[in-house]
Write a structure and sequence with these properties.
The complex is a heterodimer of chains A (328) and B (263). Chain A is an alpha/beta fold and 328 residues long. Chain A has helices at 18-29, 43-53, 73-83, 96-109, 220-230, 238-242, 273-276, 296-299, 308-327; strands at residues 4-7, 10-11, 14-15, 35-41, 59-64, 89-93, 112-117, 119-124, 127-134, 139-146, 151-155, 171-174, 186-192, 206-210, 233-236, 263-267, 284-289, 302-305. Chain B has a single domain, classed as HUPs (Rossmann fold, 3-Layer(aba) Sandwich). Chain B is 27% helix and 27% strand. The chains are: A alpha/beta (328), B alpha/beta (263).
């Protein structure tokens, strides 16, 4: 098995949660091998991250370079190509940074590329067998990856549970001098923080969340009426925002808000992992969807196969009736 | 600005229940509704809007077969000047790198300032744009949700990052950008528009036209191969309520009350 490297994303001197997940994925690929963290950045924050990683990685390769202070994927790719040995396996989190970095890195390292891997199924010779998902999570696939000339693999966030690895005292190896000056055709300017919306969906106990199944903007009132009788708010998945039916501030998911309600009504939401990533705190999830194969039914507590445009108004009426009875 | 958009025809997951075939090696493809990959359609719209502002033309290219011409025509009906099909038996079975290599050989024949792809297709891999950029040694940005043309050499782009935040970058042309859905509102295409381009010839290039060694693409060149499909088991699975609608509502209300959802 080739040497495995985990690219560690960090911020403010603290390693991202994905570091432990990459380590878990690496251990599943090669239970006996040692995993090397590779970390890029600059200054004291980089040093703090490297120091903290010594407790879980056998080696920590540090690449310090002033131009890497902000994680620009093109510059990091060029640095990694200079430092990483040929034929290695590189694990990277499948997030907005990994999507930027990993495909090009695979080309430049001349290795295979597999993205968004939620599970590993062992290896045979130079073939690594992994799992991928297609069609918005409706089907999974076993994928065979020829790693004889190395590979870059992006790992689905949240899919690999960090194990209680035996504590190690890793060695920090400074690879900065192998890198030299770096330049890129893309330059970071600034980060624009999302505008606050009219309703803060992150503070709601109950969310009526709508997806593509709401079909058109005029139908949003159906969800809003249910939310009103529940004292809840309407949130949504990505297609609703793409269609400009609701503000971005209502979107639940990895590119939207992270919510932690007690009850989450997923109405016409298929359940792509990017959406599920925004639902925390183990809420009671009710899924209502016309498609019995929608992935949301696998993670929901209660599933109902029905047309939400008919189901929701009847549910609203039922709750109204109950409220008027109890008010008497 | 000469803009190339790389597009793909995919089963429309919003219109279909995707099911496994009996052999488990593919999806049930009979009666599937196909359409252009949704992010690719946003990419074409974005290209058309850029050209409307600064001039130039939009070419849409796909790797596939004659069946895929329908999405080229659809995008031409939207306003793209040219549709091009890259098709060869040797391309069948290509992995992401193979597709990128085929596209690279086509890009090398032209003179494009900007190359757009959708952020991902139905396989969710999000790989071809980044690979193509690396093969061309062009700068790349993924998850792009805004583009502003600064001058003939530079764009200012926004990328979607976590929590609804946006990362703003300056990027040199020529470059490759992968476009996120929601960047614009793609225009409607009516049947009349599609009929108007129904007989426009679509140039087709095979491996030899592109100077590609067939052994480097397709199944022969693929390092990544799908073995089979299976139905995933993610969680414990929902308790499905399978009564009448009225019964389901009664049960649901009861459960929601128990979980603190009715106050």
């Amino acid at each position: 098995m080739p040497r495995i490297f985990a690219y560690v994303v960090h911020k403010g001197g603290v390693a991202d949660d994905s570091a432990a997940e990459l380590l878990a994925a690496a251990c599943k690929i090669d239970p006996t091998g040692s995993v090397t963290a590779v970390v890029t950045g600059f200054g004291p924050n980089l040093d703090r991250v490297c120091e903290s990683l010594r407790a879980s990685f056998g080696e920590v390769w540090k690449i310090a370079n002033q131009s890497l202070d902000y994680p620009n994927a093109e510059l990091i790719r060029k640095a990694l190509v200079k430092v990483l040995p040929s034929g290695c396996l590189v694990l990277i989190p499948h997030d907005h940074f990994g999507i930027d970095l990993a495909p090009g890195l695979a080309v430049k390292l001349n290795g295979a590329f597999v993205s968004d891997v939620p599970d590993v199924n062992g290896s045979e010779g130079s073939n690594l067998k992994v799992v991928r998902q297609e069609f918005g999570g409706q089907l999974s696939a076993h994928v065979c990856c020829d790693i004889s000339s190395g590979a870059v693999i992006t790992v689905r966030p949240g899919a690999f549970k960090p194990a209680g690895n035996n504590p190690v005292v890793g060695l920090v190896v400074d690879k900065s001098f192998d890198v030299g000056p770096l330049s890129a055709g893309r330059r970071y300017l600034e980060t624009v923080v999302a505008e606050a919306g009219d309703v803060d969906i992150t503070r709601q106990h109950v969310l009526v969340s709508i997806g593509r199944g709401i079909q058109e903007k005029n139908n949003i009132g159906i969800a809003q009426e249910l939310a009103d009788v529940l004292g809840a708010a309407v949130s949504c998945s990505r297609p609703v925002v793409d269609a400009k039916w609701l503000e971005k501030s209502r979107q639940v998911g990895s590119s939207g808000k992270t919510v932690k309600p007690k009850v989450y009504l997923a109405c016409g939401i298929s359940g792509a992992f990017q959406h599920l990533a925004g639902i925390k705190g183990n809420p009671f999830i009710v899924a209502i969807n016309k498609n019995p194969k929608a992935p949301i039914f696998q993670v929901a507590d209660i599933g109902i196969v029905d047309d939400l445009l008919e189901f929701l108004p009847e549910l609203t009426n039922k709750i109204r009736e109950m409220q008027s009875v109890s008010a008497k | 600005m000469e803009i190339l958009v790389c597009a793909r025809r995919v089963p429309d997951t919003s219109e279909n229940e995707i099911a496994l075939n009996s052999a488990g090696n593919d999806i049930e493809r009979d009666e599937l509704v196909y359409s252009i990959n949704e992010p690719d359609n946003y990419a074409v719209e974005e290209a058309l809007q850029i050209v409307a502002r600064v001039g130039g033309s939009v070419t849409v290219v796909t790797v596939g077969s004659e069946d895929d011409e329908e999405i080229l025509r659809r995008e031409m009906a939207m306003g793209a000047s040219h549709g091009v099909l890259l098709s060869d038996d040797a391309f069948i079975g290509s992995d992401g790198r193979g597709i990128a290599a085929i596209l690279k050989s086509f890009v090398a024949k032209g003179n494009y300032d900007l190359i757009l792809t959708g952020v991902q297709a139905e396989d969710g891999a999000a790989q071809v744009g980044g690979m193509l950029a690396a093969m061309l040694d062009y700068p790349f940005a993924s998850l792009v949700n805004s583009i502003e043309v600064l001058d003939a050499r530079k764009l200012k782009i926004g990328r979607e990052i976590e929590g609804g935040n946006r990362e703003i970058n300056e990027i040199d042309l020529p470059c490759v950008l992968s476009i996120q859905t929601g960047i614009n509102e793609p225009r409607y295409v009516g049947m009349r528009g599609i009929r108007a381009v129904a007989s426009v010839p679509i140039p087709t290039h095979a491996a030899s036209d592109l100077g590609l060694d067939p052994g480097t693409v397709g199944d022969a060149g693929a390092k990544v191969k799908r073995v089979d499909y299976f139905v995933p088991v993610l969680g414990k699975g929902a308790e499905m309520l399978s009564g009448s609608r009225e019964e389901n509502i009664d049960k649901l209300v009861e459960l929601m009350a128990a979980k603190g959802g009715l106050n």
